[in-house]
Amino acid sequence: LYKLDKIISNAGALVVVCEGEKAADAAAQLLPDAVITTMLNGAQSPNKSDWQPLSGRDVWLWPDNDDAGQKCMIAIRNLLKIAGAASIKTINLSAFKNLPDKGDAADLLVAGFTPAAMLDLSQKPIFFEAEKPKGTLNEQPSNAESNTDNRFHLNDGGLYYFGKNDAGNDA
């Protein structure tokens, strides 16, 4: 993980996961009290990073404003659940007015967004995506939920992905 040394040395700090180093560095300016990180090898490879250092941590996910960013953060959410993160919240990108397509924290910083504005916005209910309600014990998950939750398998040999790649073929 990017900035792993800061994650380890700031054990009580909020951790924010962005998509890429540029976005992570910008987010660090907007959220100075948090530790900002990203995965190795970009949005297509969240499973190539070790998420175990985030066990027991509160984590915010900050996707880029595109489908790839959303898919990446869904995969990271699942990996963080496996790693035992204490809480996981996804930032609602619609809370940022005029965020361009594929936009991220770096775009907000260039547009003049400030740490004070970020703190103010983070206190508002719109800042996080709504959590999906948990079903009853007898309720079967939707097909999409069951595919998402079962794509990753962790054992002593490593973390494995079972699912479809972008071309729709088995991975």
Describe the structure.
With 171 residues, the protein is an alpha/beta fold. Helix content is 32%, strand content 14%. The protein has a four-stranded parallel β-sheet, sandwiched between helices. Helix 3 (67-83) links the parallel strand 3 (58-62) and strand 4. The longest helix has 17 residues, at 67-83. It is globular.
Mean pLDDT: 83
In whole angstroms, how far apart are the ends?
Answer: 23 Å
Poorly predicted regions are 133-148
Structural class: alpha/beta
Give, in order, the helices and strands: HEHEEHEHHHEE
Give the DSSP E fraction (strand runs of 2 or more residues): 5-15%
In what order do the strands lie side by side in the largest sheet? Answer: 2-1-3-4
Radius of gyration computed on alpha carbons: 16 Å
How would you describe this structure in keywords?
four-stranded parallel β-sheet, alpha/beta, two-stranded antiparallel sheet, 171 residues
Question: Layout of SSEs?
Answer:
Blueprint lengths: L3 H6 L5 E4 L2 H10 L4 E3 L20 E5 L4 H17 L3 E4 L14 H6 L4 H8 L20 H7 L2 E4 L2 E4 L10
Parallel strand pairs: 1-2, 1-3, 3-4
Antiparallel strand pairs: 5-6
Give a brief rundown of this model.
By secondary structure, this protein is an alpha/beta fold.
